[in-house]
Amino acid sequence: MAQLKAVSPCSSINLAFHSPKRGSLLYHDKVSCPTKFQEFGARTSELHGHGHGHVVAGNNCNVVRTRNRQAIKAVLSHEKEEKVSPATNGGLRGKLKKVVLAYSGGLDTSVIVPWLRENYGCEVVCFTADVGQGIKELEGLEEKAKASGACQLVVKDLQEEFVRDFIFPCLRAGAIFERKYLLGTSMARPVIAKAMVDVAKEVGADAVSHGCTGKGNDQVRFELTFFALNPELNVVAPWREWDIQGREDAIEYAKKHNVPVPVTKKSIYSRDRNLWHLSHEGDILEDPANEPKKDMYMMSVDPEDAPDKPEYIEIGIVSGLPVSVNGKELSPASLLAELNEIGGRHGIGRIDMVENRLVGMKSRGVYETPGGTILFAAARELESLTLDRETMQVKDSIALKYAELVYAGRWFDPLRESMDAFMEKITETTTGSVTLKLYKGSVSVTGRKSPYSLYREDISSFESGHIYNQADAAGFIKLYGLPMRVRAMLEKGI
Fold first, then answer.
1. Is 345 designated active site?
2. Confidence class of residue 265 from pLDDT cuts 50, 70 and 90?
3. Which of 106, 119, 304, 415 is most buried as measured by Cβ atoms within 10 A of its Cβ?
4. Cβ distance 348 to 307 under 8 Å?
């Protein structure tokens, strides 16, 4: 976490400004600050190149706007002359006893282990969450962790909890971020961070740590969860503190500290995989104009290479939550895994988008969410039977905010929890089944049914009925269109 650090008294800046004439609409061209300037440093970094950002602030400090932005230029000029070190958790150095580190076994987290021991003088407990990233990702982790200097590795299988308590509520809410993104990474971070808080309590740790960069969303998602579940835990984010600038620096540091460097081939893409999705970023994808390469995808076949014959599946849903595939009841994780396999072979669920990161920049990502795409289509279609017009409109409007909260890492925010209670209530009758056709990347709904359906054939039929008298429509249209009629009369002078 960034720390406030006094860098210099105001008198040492010696800025000279010229005030405009009295009566000018501009404020006086001066900076007055009776107390010390302070630096709120936020060191930002990522795998390939890192930047340092500093915001200067002060107590009772009046920085005013000037003609030609002279004050701003002077401050920037002063910053160039007087180098300010990035913020660190220096106040915690030597005070932490044990840290729980989110650990993947890759180069970055392998290097973080000795770095924490060297800079904080603490024990390091590595924690790995199984959220469906694959068996290969979990192989040999204990040996790697201990070889890096960790005193312990804790692995927890969170797959069922992840799908049941995080994915399915988002599905029920219809939460989609910026029209496309089904929130795969966003939902995974809070379940991992929650488990880290539990492990910290179990092993008696007084801090937690992660390997997120200072330019990404994940640092926020992890830390907001830590704050919400245990505000007394200290947080260490090495990427916002250390001098390591990229992969080569990390390898050099690892060799210096006798840390075994992972021998797996470095992917040209930055990927995140769990049971819900697989994301791809980096390399040619950094240019939004570039088409993704065909061999990049891992969860789904190219729709052009998918089977020439469509496949029909039936999804059973109870109170807005999926329970079965083709009549076979499955646990949440098993159901999702089954649909990933089915959807993947038909090229379902590929999304290419430019999104707005929480930290302010735009980024381009490609996502594979085969099972999730099928489930969203099924849940949305069943609601067309079970929800009335007004309820559906309100639900859709709240879903936008729900998705925004999840993307921003505010899973344990009372607002999201309250929204979830609303979603649970209005989907009590969203029970039934939906039949879908999967064919070369597309998902088409072919049938839907529910014991709580609001659709009545005897009302909707074009045949005459006793409930709906077509003659009644004339009066309705006159009243419904009255404002338009009055306006037209006014314009024509009637």
1. no
2. low
3. 119
4. no
CB-based contact 104:270 (threshold 8 Å) = no
Query: What topology does CATH give the domain 272-387+427-449?
Result: Argininosuccinate synthetase, chain A, domain 2 (3.90.1260)
Catalytic residue, from 108, 117, 363, 364: name it.
Answer: 108
CA–CA separation, 94 and 472 (whole Å): 80
Q: How far apart are the C-alpha atoms of 108 and 127, rounded to whole Å?
A: 14
Q: Tell me if residue 302 is catalytic.
A: no
pLDDT tier at 186, thresholds 50, 70, 90: very high
Catalytic pick among 8, 270, 334, 384: 270
Run of H or E including 45? strand 37-45
Residue 486 pLDDT exceeds 80: yes
Q: Annotated catalytic, 29?
A: no
Given the residues 45, 104, 130, 218, the one annotated as active site: 218
In tens, the pLDDT along 379-426 reads 999 999 999 999 999 999 999 999 999 999 999 999 999 999 999 999
User: What are 71-88's pLDDT values in tens digits?
Assistant: 333 333 444 333 333 445
Task: Specify whether 270 is catalytic.
Answer: yes
Q: Both tokens of residue 237?
A: 């984010």
Which two three-digit tokens encode residue 248?
A: 């080569």
Dist. CA 336–CA 301, nearest whole Å: 18
Tell which residue, 59, 84, 56, has the closest CA to residue 71.
56
In the chain, the percentage of residues whose pLDDT exceeds 90 is 72
Phi, psi for residue 292 in degrees, rounded to 5: -60, 145
Residue 283's contacts (CB-CB under 8 Å, 6 or more residues apart) are 268, 269
Type of residue found at 283: D
DSSP, collapsed to helix, strand or coil, labels residue 153 as strand
- 432-439 and 362-368: which strand pairing? unpaired
Neighbouring residues of 347: CB distance < 8 A, sequence distance ≥ 6: 300, 301, 302, 303, 304, 305, 306, 440, 441
Of the candidates 43, 117, 172, 189, the residue annotated as catalytic is 189
Residue 222 has pLDDT above 50, yes or no: yes
How far apart CA 167 and CA 324 sit, in angstroms, is 16
Task: Say yes or no to pLDDT of 141 above 80.
Answer: yes
Domain ranges within the chain, ordered by starting residue? 4-81, 90-266, 272-387+427-449, 462-492
Radius of gyration of the chain (CA): 28
157 pLDDT more than 70:
yes
Same fold flag, 90-266 and 272-387+427-449:
no
> What pLDDT score was predicted for residue 46?
34
Looking at residue 184, its amino acid is G
Q: Which pTM was predicted?
A: 0.80
Identify the CATH class of 90-266. alpha beta
Please check the confidence at residue 302 and state whether its pLDDT lies above 60: yes
Which residues, 6 or more positions from 187, have their beta carbon under 8 angstroms from its beta carbon? 162, 166, 167, 170, 276, 406, 411
